[in-house]
Write the structure tokens for this entry.
Amino acid sequence: MTGATAEVVICGAGMAGVAAAYHLAVRRGVSGVVLLDERPALSLTSDKSAESYRNWWPGPGDAMVALMNRSIDLMEELARESGNVFLMNRRGYLFATARPDQLERYVRAAEDAASYGAGPVRVHRSSGSDYQPAPAAGFEGQPTGSDVITDPSVIRRHFPYLAKDTVALLHARRCGWFSGQQLGMYMLERAREKGVRLLEGRVERVETTGGRISGVAVSGRDGARTIATPRFVNAAGPFVKEMGRLLGVELPVFCERHAKVAFHDTLGVVPRQAPMMIWTDPVRLPWSDEERAELGETEALRHLLDEMPGGVHGRPEGGGDSPIMLGIWTYDVEPMEARFPVEFDPAYAEIVLRGLTRPLPGLAAYLSRFPKCFVDGGYYTKTRENRFLSGPLPVEGAYVLGGLSGYGMMSSNGAADLLADYIAERPLPHYAPAFHLNRYQDPAYRALLDNWGDSGQL
Ligand SMILES: Cc1cc2nc3c(=O)[nH]c(=O)nc-3n(C[C@H](O)[C@H](O)[C@H](O)COP(=O)(O)OP(=O)(O)OC[C@H]3O[C@@H](n4cnc5c(N)ncnc54)[C@H](O)[C@@H]3O)c2cc1C
């Protein structure tokens, strides 16, 4: 088929592409939007996420927090108008440590986050504290910012299931989780009501005439076709770099493989209303003497006796009667090429479950009789400083929405809202330059990159 036309063709119907279609068609009134994907919508990376969100991001500057606050504002608007079909909650992220020397670090992180706009810090050092735990469901009327808790009686009262030697907690409050599939489908339906066409097909070539976008060559079940269009959005997820090459643009992104594990907490070790819990201390995995001896003798497994990095985290998943618990631990990541189906470390589930017994000792009950675990995941597509790309590319009419790393479900609304401002030629928010590809041409930014520090990845 030839002769089809569009005002904008978006390649990729993951969360990024769906959000772009939604913000263009529904919120900016742009007509003639085509959303193209060779797979079913929201099926590659966007259905593998842990579906969590946070406005809790490091600097430099306030760009990440401002963008994320905007994204969360938009998700809250969508939750209100839809009767919260995607079950957005506001339980918070609870960082925990058993190291007294971490307390000041928690306070500093909370103050930094406050200075970027994440909300105020409340420190609870005494038992008379007015710490308010988060409700299990809903998001209205909740505090922002963070609570730093060091009073042992407050820790014990509200979080009796955490390790007894926990000495400090940092409860970041504008954080929680939601159903990413439901949110994505809700936006896709609204976009289609406003005329967005979702087409099946693989983008093979992007055509330019006189240096600007003129068409997209697509292959699919119906054969090859060309869609004439003056605008093309590259939202190809883990293939955003390859897609950039079709445009002759080298995008500074790479992929890392990330997994998550789900298991049934049939003993109810973790209460169903618990927040997301992140243990920030390094961890030594618990092994019996016999296991320890065995691992020590096996070259390939000996590292499992070493201290592992902090950051093991988990949360309950599903409604009140669901027994599911999710666990994630980024203990080793390497840049790699995205290949599907994705293969994971066969020991991942066991390592994560053993790691989670440090903050949640009750889970040790499962070590003698390991529960059935389900591991899945995909790729984080990242820039080196872990800030995504949203905006125009050097080819006129070409745009990118990618590099959304491990935070694309929570940020897609903000990132697509920004992209839609570029395309609809609206005034841009102050954080726009932080996500523009041309930031890498700025020598001051390049100098900053060399000493970047915390990338915000969990
Ligand atoms: C284990 C894990 C946990 C995560 N946890 C969270 C979390 O808690 N919170 C959060 O916010 N984010 C999380 N993420 C990140 C989030 O899932 C991603 O950032 C997000 O899904 C990226 O969306 P995307 O639309 O860019 O990519 P994708 O969902 O991969 O979509 C890209 C689409 O482009 C299509 N495509 C590519 N090339 C072509 C082509 N040539 N022609 C046609 N179509 C093409 C693909 O078929 C695909 O459908 C997690 C990710 C993983 C892997």
About this structure: DSSP finds ten helices and 24 strands in the chain.
